[in-house]
Automatic annotation (TrEMBL), chains A, B:
Stated name of the protein: CBS domain protein
Domain CBS: 95-157
Gene3D superfamilies referenced in this protein's UniProt entry, alphabetically: CBS-domain
Species of provenance: Kitasatospora cineracea
Top-level lineage group: Bacteria
PROSITE patterns membership: CBS
Keywords per UniProt: CBS domain
Keyword DNA repair: no
Amino acid sequence: MRARDLAEPFPTVGLDDQALDAARLLAEHRLPGVLVVDGPGVPRAVLPASQLVRLLVPEYLVEDPALAAVVDEAHADRLCEELTGVRVGECLPKDAPAPPVADAEDTAVEVAALMARTRSPLVAVVERPPDGRAAAGGRLLGVVTASNLLHRLLGAS
Amino acid sequence: MRARDLAEPFPTVGLDDQALDAARLLAEHRLPGVLVVDGPGVPRAVLPASQLVRLLVPEYLVEDPALAAVVDEAHADRLCEELTGVRVGECLPKDAPAPPVADAEDTAVEVAALMARTRSPLVAVVERPPDGRAAAGGRLLGVVTASNLLHRLLGAS
């Protein structure tokens, strides 16, 4: 079982895409996060849904629970307007790490060890050009999530 | 819109349940994590699928990528045996925080502010007994995930 067999399609957004579109994608697929890519095959970061929620809520409401309790419903309906015109690249935390990347030919054990080492909930799988694994770029085949990996490993036992 | 309307059912496991059963639950529902409860209404922690993957992979393979690359397929099939007999409570990281808890009557803005404040991907919703909100315990109604909250807030706008 190779990383290419474990990889599943996963929604991606580009750094210059609208944050509001990323939020719609997360909402529609009920995903905990979306993969941010820089070009077609370079995973750049994971944008968690919780990060977008943080951007929706004004700082004074985050800091003051009592105030948040008395905000009226009409205000809640307008929270998503905060994302209008904001690009995905601007939403990423400054220290957002690039997701770990496995080669298409890596084994399931290598993917599991990489996930364990990086404590990441997902690993991106990239097919590198045949002329050298160390070359930058490649083609993104999908991601292996921790739950998918458990599914495959449990199915095998 | 109140927290009780936002809450969705979410799989839970108890501290004394088998870790292997938790892994099967995560795998079956393709969930990034499962809610660990202590009794019927007390959310204790979130057990991420990636944490279970970490427990499957022996430390010497985590530390040595070159070694992980040469482990044979038969070994991969036996990784899940690592979880046999292990209980959920033993899998939680020592510093695993309890998930944030919202009251059933909290507003969507309060839930969003709580999620933003705690940087948590989910908020547990508990119905507290009518004789006092500060009382310990209550009934777990479900959870609000960040993506579900985005879905509801986007739908409202």
